[in-house]
Write a structure and sequence with these properties.
Chain lengths: 247, 280
């Protein structure tokens, strides 16, 4: 089943065209890896899907469908609840771990105390963070380590019960152990969510992505199962990139 | 042959010069405060603080001026804070850093540099005469509000601009609207900076003479309503000293003024630190 359908999508920052006529389907419960060098439009793609580009004063042409519904027919709050975005640098909001976790859910509905606790605790468990923070939920979130902060960001997104989780190089600043934990978390969660996963690390894409898309200068060059992309790419530019000849 | 100074000596010279500059600044500050306190602390007594002013200030206390100063300042802050913070939020969050923002910021900077006597004159003509508010706490408070507005706008603007852009992205990407983001993320994060602006505003308002003498008047009675004329501490001090009524009482008043400003600053910084400790 197609979860996100992207049709003729172009995105412009003032006069710079960051995405060029992209057509792409994201299938339910897959991990779609998105690779490509800097300025290839990977992040712009994510920011188009949850309409975060609007705060950068960018504009788009083309259509994006979520479960066959145009994202512009959804309210922006509903869209961003259903499509979570996790950034490259973990950014925790000022305040406690609990406050970070409850920020999203509280924006969308009112809860009795017990209900909110349950959402927060479950999301922390799903992000494999619960055991490490259960005794200090009310301590400042900024005291967590980098890897823990990134898992808190994942948990914070999970707390909103999204359908699609987009990640923009979520492991770029993390050590191998933290990276492995996040990858394990993603594979655990794949059953219930759809992932779009931007990474600079081609090996990482090969490890966990179901399919991989290669972007270059705002164009989608190739998309196929990861196995195919990494062993037998169709386009010579893809081959050059994954074998490290540029980028 | 040129005189060569080794890097180590260089460091020492720079250190000594900077240290001297700091010492001069601190000494001047403490000298002024010490001088006023030396002449004024002797005047302080419960009676001085709680008694009516008698014989133009030659006798009695300064209670009416304390009350007057309190209400004029509070009035000014209550008016200027929402206006100033609101403008700052608009400038940072709703304009794209374009021409409008630069014009308004430039205007605020100019306004901040206007001598306070000009505000006094404006307040007298506009609030006292034109709007027929008379010499009153309202007129004085409004004039001070206009005067401290640029300070509050500019400090709030800087504080709001300093909130990392990523905080806003996080809030939006969790489904927050613009207003949610401003109220729940941007303002709480920038609150210490905004409070600094308000404290600076309070300091300017409490110590202001020229802007209030024309607008709040110089009546010595205890104000009974917001439309009563009143004499603030700074004005009282000015009149006592300028007209040679009583130098000891003038120093006493100045001492009270300084103590009030110290207390305001102390309390505000304590509040701020507690806030920061809770949030970060």
């Amino acid at each position: 089943m197609i979860k996100v359908a992207i049709r003729n999508l172009s995105l412009y920052y003032d006069n710079f065209q960051a995405l060029k006529e992209i057509n792409l389907d994201v299938v339910s419960n897959e991990i779609l890896g998105v690779i490509g060098p800097a300025n290839s439009g990977k992040s712009s793609l994510l920011r188009a899907i949850n309409r975060l580009y609007e705060i950068d004063y960018a504009r788009i042409t083309g259509r994006i469908l979520l479960d066959n519904e145009d994202i512009f027919d959804l309210t922006i709050n509903d869209l961003r609840r259903r499509v979570g975005l996790i950034f490259a640098t973990p950014v925790v909001l000022p305040g406690s771990i609990y406050k970070n976790m409850s920020y999203g859910p509280k924006l969308h509905s009112k809860f009795r105390k017990g209900e909110l606790d349950e959402i927060v605790f479950n999301a922390l468990r799903a992000a494999n963070l619960w055991d490490e923070v259960k005794d200090r939920l009310y301590d400042s979130a900024s005291r967590l380590s980098g890897g823990q902060q990134q898992r808190l960001c994942i948990a914070r997104t999970l707390a909103m019960h999204p359908e699609v989780i987009m990640m923009d190089e979520p492991c770029s600043g993390l050590d191998p152990v933290s990276t492995a934990k996040i990858e394990a978390t993603m594979l655990d969660l794949k059953e219930n969510y759809t992932f779009i996963f931007v990474t600079n690390n081609t090996k990482q894409a090969a490890r966990i992505a179901t399919r991989t898309a290669f972007f270059l200068s705002g164009e989608l060059i190739e998309i196929d199962s990861s196995e195919k992309v990494f062993t037998n790419p169709q386009d010579p530019r893809t081959d050059d990139y994954i074998s490290g000849r540029f980028g | 042959m040129t005189l060569r100074i080794g890097p180590r000596t260089n460091q020492i010279i720079a250190y000594v010069i900077l240290l001297l500059m700091t010492i001069v600044t601190i000494v001047v500050l403490f000298f002024i405060i010490g001088f006023v306190f030396k002449n004024g602390l002797g005047q302080l007594s419960l009676e001085f603080l709680t008694d009516k002013t008698r014989e133009m200030g030659r006798e009695g206390g300064i209670f009416p001026s304390i009350v007057g100063t309190f209400f004029v300042t509070i009035f000014a802050i209550v008016i200027a804070t929402p206006l100033g913070v609101g403008s700052a939020v608009y400038l940072v969050e709703y304009t794209r850093g374009g021409v409008i923002r630069r014009i308004i910021s430039f205007g605020a900077d100019c306004l901040a540099g206007v001598p306070s006597i000009i505000f006094g004159l404006f307040g007298f003509i506009f609030f006292v005469i034109q709007l027929n508010l008379g010499w009153s706490i309202v007129s004085g408070g409004l004039t001070l509000a206009v005067m401290i507005l640029p300070t509050i706008i500019r400090t709030s603007e800087e504080a709001i601009k300093a909130v990392p852009h990523t905080y806003r992205e996080i809030s939006y990407s969790l489904g927050g609207g613009k207003l949610d983001t401003i109220l729940k993320v941007v303002l709480p994060t920038s609150l210490p900076g905004i409070l600094t602006g308000i404290i600076l505003g309070i300091g300017r308002a409490v110590g202001e003479t020229a802007a209030v003498i024309f607008t709040a008047g110089s009546s010595l009675g205890i104000p009974t309503s917001l439309f009563s004329s009143t004499r603030t501490l700074a004005v009282h001090f000015y009149i006592l000293a300028r007209e040679g009524i009583s130098m000891p009482k003038a120093y006493g008043t100045a001492t009270v003024l300084i103590i009030i400003i110290l207390i305001v600053n102390f309390v505000a910084y304590r509040l701020m630190h507690r806030f920061i400790a809770r949030y970060y």
